[in-house]
Amino acid sequence: IYYENGKYEASLTRFYELLNDKSDFERALTGIIWCYLKMDLNDKAEAALKTLINQSPESSFACEALLVLAKKIHKRAAFEWKKTVFIQSEFLRLKALQQKLNSHFENLKAGPDSTKYKYADHELKTLLSRLKTENHLNHDSIFTLYNKADKISDLILTHYKTGSFQDKAFSNNREKILNFLDSVIIKIQSGNFESNSSAPLSNGIHMNRIKIKSVLEDVSDFKVINQIDKYRWEKEYFDNSKKNHKREEELISTKINSTTDSIIRRDLILKKNLITRQLDSVVAREDSVTARYLNSLPVLIQKRLNENSSGAQTDYFKYQLGELYYIIDNNIYARTYDKYELDLSHYNQQMIAYRQGELTNMPEKPVAPKLNHSRSIQQFKEVIEGNSTSEFAPHCLYSLGWCYNDLSQYDSAMYYLETLVTLYPGNFYTPQAWMYCGEYYFDKGKLDKAINCYQAVMRYPESEWFDEALYKLAWSQYRISNPEKAISSFLALVDLGKYGINGSSLLEKESMDYIAISFSETDITGEKGLERAVAFAKKLGEMDKGCMILSRLAKVFREQGRYELSAKTYSSILSIYPNYSMNAQIEVELISVLERQGSQKEINQLRIALFQRYNRNSDWAKTQNTESVRLADSIAAAQLYSAAIGFHQLAIQKTDNKFYTNALDAYSSFIKLYPAAPLANECHYNLAEINFSLGNYREAAEEYMAVSRRYPDSKYRENAAWNAIVASQNFLKNELQGKQPK
User: Fold this and answer.
1) Is 715 exposed, middle or buried (0-12, 13-18, 19+ CB in 10 A)?
2) Closest CA relative to residue 613, chosen from 580, 569, 567
3) Is the dihedral angle over the CA atoms 602, 608, 613, 619 positive or is it negative?
4) 648 found inside a domain
5) What pLDDT score was predicted for residue 201?
6) Average pLDDT across the chain, whole number
7) Which sign, positive or negative, has the C-alpha torsion 145, 148, 152, 154?
């Protein structure tokens, strides 16, 4: 009754009390086993089964029961690792989503959609908090689980392979116990623990040496599988750890580059150095652990294949052995090639000495090592040729393709990968195999076939190769002079980057380049290309995308030396999209193009106009979000400073008071709007200098004094103080003589 009501601890106590009664011993033992299973106390369940082995060493079910426990522990290790990876990846994904939400919806915090923003922000914070507190096992705990499964396998093999069990008649009590254990094993295997005391299923009569030998075969296979999975898990663990350390290192580097505070910068550098040392430690541990597995695991697998060359796991073991040989042979080649490069460098030095007569005998040139994948190829081919219906046949075809690719035997690689995509269209490796085929034909100039392959990859939208296939499809269409289709494909790739969590990708940027190039090559003059691009951008109806296309087109024209078309394109953006968030940058590019032909006066005037249009107090700024205003205002300040310096230089060169006035106005505007900017002290000093040059000694003296007092760290401070005295003296002198300033 306690058991049926889920009160397993109370039930366990009662069952233990019944153990003292010989008539109820077998029932009590069965109840204890079920309670331990329900309570997930595998250690105690294992101890109970060991006791049973001691009582009934000839029982195959005891042997099988231990194997079931070992497999259960093995599965738990795999589950715990998947759980850990899932928690980490979800945390990073939600964190990235939160950052994207904050950056893209900064202006919503006080707008009409602020409620939605607050709700989304709250939900993300809640989810992140839950993920932080979610329990999951660390590396050592998972490692212990794999080792525990391995020890149970050794226990079974040690006890039964030595022949310590014997065939003998069962006592009545032993037969009953085995009957109950039989029901437990069947329940475990079926995953159904709901029934607690159904009628025992007995097949104890058939428990004999043949059954035990069959179980031992399974145990021997499981031991190898457990070692392979432990190796793969440790490899994933180190890869995951390195990725996390590198991500944190990059994040800190970004913070270092964005701060000007020396104390914060120092602390960040120390933190980055610590992470770098931790990363080095992870790499060193990985090298040590990997070397251990690469030494022991191939031997273990080969030994098992020698014991049983036609077992249920034979194809799997051969595939894994081929993969291990592939890694080992690549490592051997890398080491021998490093030595070859050292020997070659030494040889070149000896040859110089030989030519100069310092050596009597010509040195022997070292022979470059050759990569050898024959061991891997043999294992993969044995799987394919031995059983074409094997579930590992597509894996072996894929690996064969890369073996031959590494050996520069590209036709052979192509043969196996084409076989893969033909026979196994639903396999995980098929999209990448199609991609390889596409690259093979692309490099040979067979663009029609390449396009077919890239389109085949796109039948797998969840594949990691989808973006690259779309990019190469567009590129192929561009190369066969089909710009319309190329542009459509490139735009599709831009959309993928726009709506992805990670934002723009390198392929997206390259796609925009090729869209622009496609338009620029429409005709010889480029005029029709610009017209088509403008019409295309308007038709899209998306300001950001239209501006991106036209901006890239302007850069392409500029790189081609077609400056007039470049200027027209930039002007088109400003005309069509007056509220585009990147207009300040666009106008800077326009001024840069016009600077090649325009006068210094005109360029300075354009810079002043840009400042007036995009500073933080402008009408344009009122339509933008905080980040766009900040960037545009920074550009406006830089252009205002350049204009002030430009007018100042013109005034000095041409001794023209109008240019002095223009410079005065620009310097004054800068000081007024950006008093705390690093360049403010220079602008203020130059303002005083101009007033002094114009004979405005009173104003000059006041500005010099302001520089010496307002900017304590300025390099102009001492000169400003002395010049203030000189300006004051000149002012008093003029007052006495009744002179007026210029």
Assistant:
1) exposed
2) 580
3) negative
4) no
5) 32
6) 83
7) positive
**155: its two tokens:** 């226990």
| Residue 19: exposure state from Cβ atoms within 10 A (0-12, 13-18, ≥19) | middle
Q: Is residue 289 part of a domain?
A: no
Asked whether the beta carbons of 618 and 645 are under 8 A apart, the reply is no
Q: Is 358 helix (H, G, I), strand (E, B) or coil?
A: coil
In 3D space, the residue among 665, 625, 663 whose CA is nearest the CA of residue 647 turns out to be 663
* Tens digits of residue pLDDT in 231-272: 999 999 999 999 989 988 988 888 888 777 788 889 999 999
Question: Could you report the per-residue pLDDT of 271-299, keeping only the tens digit for each?
Answer: 999 999 999 999 999 999 999 999 999 99
Does pTM top 0.70 for this prediction?
A: no
Q: Does 5 map to a domain?
A: yes
Look at 696 and 186; give whichever has higher pLDDT. 696
- Domain residues for the domain of 4 are 1-40+169-203
493 falls within a domain: no
Q: For the chain, what is the domain count?
A: 1
DSSP string, 135-146: ----HHHHHHHH
369: left (phi over 0), alpha (psi -120 to 50) or beta: beta
Confidence check: pLDDT of 326 > 70: yes
How many other CB atoms sit within 10 Å of the CB of residue 80?
18
Residue 655, phi-psi category: left (phi > 0), alpha (psi -120 to 50), beta (remainder): left
Residues in the chain: 742
Which pLDDT does position 95 carry in this prediction? Answer: 82
